[in-house]
Amino acid sequence: MMARVEYRIERIPLNRDEPRLLQLVERLAELGRQGWHVASVDLTPHPSFEDGPVTVLLERELEGQVLG
Fold first, then answer.
1. Cα-based distances in Å from 51 to 4, 27, 33, 41, 64
2. pTM of the predicted model, to two decimals?
3. CA distance 57 to 67
4. Confidence of residue 57 (pLDDT cuts 50, 70, 90)
5. Which CATH number fits domain 2-63: 3.40.50, 2.40.10, 1.10.1660, 3.30.70?
6. Please, are residues 62 and 7 in contact by the beta-carbon 8 Å criterion?
7. Rounded to an integer, what distance in angstroms lies between the CA atom of residue 36 and that of residue 31?
8. Over the stretch 12-33, which tens digit does the pLDDT of each residue have?
């Protein structure tokens, strides 16, 4: 039997005036408190990371729902 999960794509905007990775970790911690787990994130250095939001794929288990 497998638990059912839901997915969410979150685009996390980052402020240039604050440390970018700290902002990302703080937002991910907030989402974690809501039950979300990071399924995928691309932190490969590229120009868009400097100017735009970071896209993260999240998943969480649906409470009380099991496949089987």
1. 36, 17, 27, 17, 40
2. 0.74
3. 22
4. very high
5. 3.30.70
6. no
7. 5
8. 888 888 888 898 899 999 999 9
